[in-house]
Amino acid sequence: MADRNKRLAENVPGEFFVDSTCIDCDACRQIAPEVFADSGEFSFVHAQPQDEDTVRNALRALLACPTGSIGTLHPNRAREVKADFPLPVAERVFYCGFNSPKSFGGNSYFVRHPAGNWLIDSPKFLPPLIDRFKEWGGIAYIFLTHRDDVAEAAKFAEKFSARRIIHRLELSSQPGAEIVIDGEQPLEIVPQFLVIPTPGHTRGHCCLLYDRKYLFTGDHLWWSRTKERLNAGRDVCWHSWTQQTRSMALLEKYDFEWVLPGHGQRVHQPPEEMRRQIGELVAEMQSR
Fold first, then answer.
1. pTM above 0.85, yes or no
2. How far, in Å, CA of 195 to CA of 167, rounded?
3. CATH no. for residue 58?
C-alpha cells in the first residue's frame, strides 16, 4: 500500500500520488499516460484525473502497480475496478494487469482460444485473475519468454493443470516446465502459435507469434514513446548484444501487426511498417 508520507515531490497536488517505492517499471504510464509520467528514474502524477474514465484508468494503474506505489488520499473504488482485468487488447488478446514485482513489473497477457487458452508470462497469482481465468475455461499453456518474467507461473500451472513452455537455457527458472524448447529453430506448438527463439537479452529468450498478428516479445523488443518507433536496449541486454541483433534481424521475415512486450509500450501497426522498422532497428543495433 502506498504511503502518503513518502509521496514524491514531483506529484502534482491532488488525490492520486506515487510514493518513493516506485521501481520505474512503466506499467502505470502504459495504462494511464494521461495521469502518470516518467521522471527518468520513477513515475509520478503529472495531471490529476478530471473525469470518470480517467479516474478508472488511474485506479487500474494503481492495481497493476507491482510494488503498490500508487495511492489516493481518500478511500477509492479499486475493489470495484479489479473486475476490469484482464483488459482487452484486441480480439481474443488481453492484458492481465496485476504485474508482479518478481518480474520487475513485467506485463503478462492472456489469449482466449477455442482449442485452449494461453497465458504469456506471469502476473501475480490473485483471486480476481484466477476467477476470471476459470470463467474463461482455464489455461492450457503458459508460455514463458525467459527467466526474468516467470513470476508465479508454477502456481498457475498447478491450479489449471497448464503446460509451461520455456527454452532449455532458461529451464533453471522453471525446472518443472512441461514443454522444453531446444536450439534456435522456430517451433509451432499447436496451430497458430509459433515459438521463435530470440537469444540475446538472455541465452534462451523466445518470442511467441500468435495468428500471424500478435508478437509477444518479452524483453526483446518494444515501442519507444520518445523515439516513436520500435526499440531495443543494450543497457538491459544481460547476455549478448550481438546475438540479440542477429535474433532481431530474423523477425523481418515474419508478418505481425502487434508488438506486445513484457516491458515497454505495446503498439499496433501494419505488417509492412513493422518490417520496415525492424530493418531500421537492426541497422542501428549493428552500429551501437
1. yes
2. 10
3. 3.30.70.20
The span from the CA of 153 to the CA of 178, in Å, is 12
Count CB atoms within 10 A of the CB of residue 83: 9
Structural domain boundaries enclosing 199? 85-287
Cβ–Cβ under 8 Å, residues 205 and 218:
yes
Measured between alpha carbons, how far is 280 from 225 in angstroms, rounded to an integer? 16
- Could you give the percent of the chain with pLDDT greater than 70? 100
HEC letters along 102-117: HHCCECCEEECCCCCC
CATH number at residue 165: 3.60.15.10
Residues 50 and 191 in one domain: no
Question: CA 227 → CA 65, 222, 224, distances in Å?
Answer: 25, 11, 5
Please tell me whether residues 119 and 249 are part of one structural domain. yes
Phi and psi, residue 51, nearest 5°:
-145, 170
Distance (Å, whole) CA 19 – CA 37: 13
Q: What is the pLDDT of residues 186-219, one digit of tens each?
A: 999 999 999 999 999 999 999 999 999 999 999 9
Q: What are phi and psi of 214, to 5 degrees?
A: -115, 115
Same domain, 253 and 275: yes
> Is residue 159 located within the same domain as residue 236?
yes
Number of structural domains found in the chain: 2
